[in-house]
Amino acid sequence: MPVEVRLSPLVRRLVAPNASPMTGGGTNTYLVGVGRVTVIDPGPADPGHIERILEAIGDATVARILLTHGHPDHAPGARPLSSRTGAAVLTHPFALRDGALLSGGGATLEVLHTPGHTSDHVSLVLREERALFSGDLIVAGSTVVVAPPDGDMAAYMASLERLARERLSRIYPGHGEVIVRPAEAIEQYLRHRRMREEQVLAALEAGPARIPELVARIYAEVPAALHGLAAQSVHAHLLKLRAEGRVAGTDAASPWRRL
Ligand SMILES: [Zn+2]
Q1: CATH assignment of 5-181?
Q2: Which of 64, 130, 149, 252 is most buried, most CB within 10 Å of its CB?
Q3: If 0-12 CB within 10 Å is exposed, 13-18 middle and 19+ buried, where does residue 249 land?
Q4: Domain ranges of the chain
């Protein structure tokens, strides 16, 4: 894999060496702007990756370092990169408030607070391209984990619905390749979650059930190694449905039922 890939006149990408089942090919670090660059998601505090980011920055100055969210595959590299460049690290809610505009190097980034994967998650619209840096709200080639209590399915689906109204030209995800048909990808994500929600409701038709029983019914085709993640997702759906008054239940360990 080449060290640095140019994706557009304003956007370059480097991939951190942290490939895994949870991170796909690794975390994407983006450099946005010319001459004065904004770094999005430096990734893990991997010395080799930080050096490659610094090489790619070259003689340019770093306007700021942005984090889409605080997870360990996106954020820890910010501190060493900040101490090497002097650039500030901006996160939600302090500097990255919804609607904030950040410009530099010919690029204007608009902050969208898009909770769901985590409560602190933001996405960034590059106005010059109508392109979205989606962090882990949308990734290429798979779904993302929505795990309570910080993950919130109602918030997640609302964030997707908000993006569906943004008329985006492309998505630069936190993991994987550029998504060139954003409207389709967002609709597919929403369809998938709505289908799971229907499956959770259908699985409760037979009577009250605990989460592992629901997982066994709904995810029969999925390898058992993934049932732990599936349980978090089912829990997230149940909490959304409870807030809507459609199911009743207490926690991950006790039975849930339809209302
Ligand atoms: Zn991630």
Answers
A1: 3.60.15.10
A2: 64
A3: buried
A4: 5-181, 204-258
